[in-house]
Amino acid sequence: MKRQSFISGVGYNLPDKIMRNEELSNYMDTSDEWISERSGIKERRVVEKLKESGVGPAELSIPAVQNALDRANLNKEDIDLIIFSTAMPDYFLPGSGCLLQEKMGFPMIGALDIRVQCAGFIYGLSVADQFIKSGTYDNVLLVCSEVQSTTIDYSNRGRDVAVLFGDGAGAVVVSATSESKGILSHHLHSEGKYAKELWIETPSAQMYPRLTNELVDEGRHHLKMNGREVFKQAVKRFPEVILECLNHNNIDAEEIDLFLPHQANIRINNMVQKKLGLRDDQVFNNIQKYGNTTSATIPILLGEAYESGRIKEGNLVLMAAFGSGFTWGASLMRW
User: Fold this and answer.
1) With 90 as the cut, is the pLDDT of residue 180 above it?
2) Burial annotation 139-174 (CB, 10 A radius, 16+ → b, else e)
3) Which of 191, 241, 295, 301 is the most exposed place for a label (fewest CB within 10 A)?
4) Out of 21, 98, 118, 222, which one is annotated catalytic?
5) Catalytic option among 13, 186, 262, 265
6) Per-residue pLDDT reduced to its tens digit, 194-240
7) Is 144 annotated in the active site?
8) Per-residue pLDDT tens for 94-133?
């Protein structure tokens, strides 16, 4: 039997602090109605900000990782490689994967950080899949963790971004199997000409000094987004890559048991659902509770779908994401 890879365990973790839309109206000119109508978001989770020290993506991911290990019936010693996806690392260097390795006491295994923002789970899953199918490793830990609230400009200047993003972490264990289940294919794309439509300009290696008081005063260290262009490209590229994935596997959209889309904007997801002709029971969204947690959105969705019984053995699960870069992709698996 051909060696396959499958998700043997899944977990997620969210900060306790809930920031509702009404709270944002204390900092900027916005309202619950305005945010809900344009994005579908009602609230998001954010880490508690401490004066001396706070929680970064490595720390936030620990409960998610432990949950995934427990569900896979594996110990830390069984993991052969850590892949860590984050748009907002703990430090510029070293990578957050190394920090997680030390914090949780993993063996001296490899720790690979990837930075493809919202598409991080799809890209990371593709990397883990190849390591498993090649026979290099038997169990790969994929972690997606984002602490974005500490880089958000909670003022009118940053309003368009501030209302969308939240903090959260998700993790999966990708393991080897000889059974007729698991990951079927991945389809990855990028278009760098749109890089500055969703980016953080500074600190940058292209600048010297990399950060100045002037740059900070101008807010150029905050996340910036051209929402109109992101929306336009997302509703175009999402269906394209999903159809590419379905056609590659000779599967019709009606055969999909569950579609887990990146949680950036409910209007994007609704338009994609309509274009593909998917029923409501085929699609799972949770953006209303958590906002956009970047690469963590799909593993958080996966964890909630698993806990609620939305995913059953043998189900076809489709996942797709689009984000900064621009990067986008889709993966299909049989649970």
Assistant:
1) no
2) bbbbbbbbbbbeebbbeeebbbbbbbbbbbbbbbbb
3) 191
4) 118
5) 262
6) 999 999 889 988 989 999 999 888 889 888 999 899 999 999 999 99
7) no
8) 999 999 999 999 999 999 999 999 999 999 999 999 999 9
